[in-house]
Amino acid sequence: MMGLRETFEVLDGERYALAGKARELLYWNDNSQYCGVCGSPMQFHTNISKRCINCGKEVWPALATAIIVAITRGEEILLVQSKNFRGNYMGLVAGFVETGETLEEAVRRETLEETGITIKNIQYAGSQAWPYPSGLMIGYTAEYESGDLLIQRSELNKGGWYNLRKLPAIPGKVSLARQLIDQVKADIIGSDD
Ligand SMILES: [Zn+2]
To answer: Can you tell me whether residue 158 is helix, strand or coil?
Structure first.
């Protein structure tokens, strides 16, 4: 037996995705036992929705949408270490999208909050289901525009600009963070090293 995160390194992509979806649905089932409107028990209506037996309120699994962004400045990339990371490696600026916000606004806001800089040329670069417990991670690349680094100590242990040719420990191959880092590295300095 092992946790879902550990299966990242063990299962193939298809099985990992299935396990993740199952984990998300189990989490949703555990957390939607009663109606948020009237407090009565909820009953399955379809295999991905439930309905209140009293007032008829219907609910579906809710995704927590988060953005993650690879920010570059010439041959450098901005890497940070979140207090949430489970290990001593450096990752990317990331955070949850707030109500009423576009994805691009969330990218700009999280970057400014976590690092004090402004960015430009924000481009969509991919997405990944993130079943911890029910997330959707949406990836972007962007370029530095202005400002000095001011790391948000309440959220991050550290952060800084790193040369793409000399990267510190970064997230594993299966993560969207790693895919974004690999992508900007290939785009900016090629895949020669
Ligand atoms: Zn109800």
So the answer is: strand
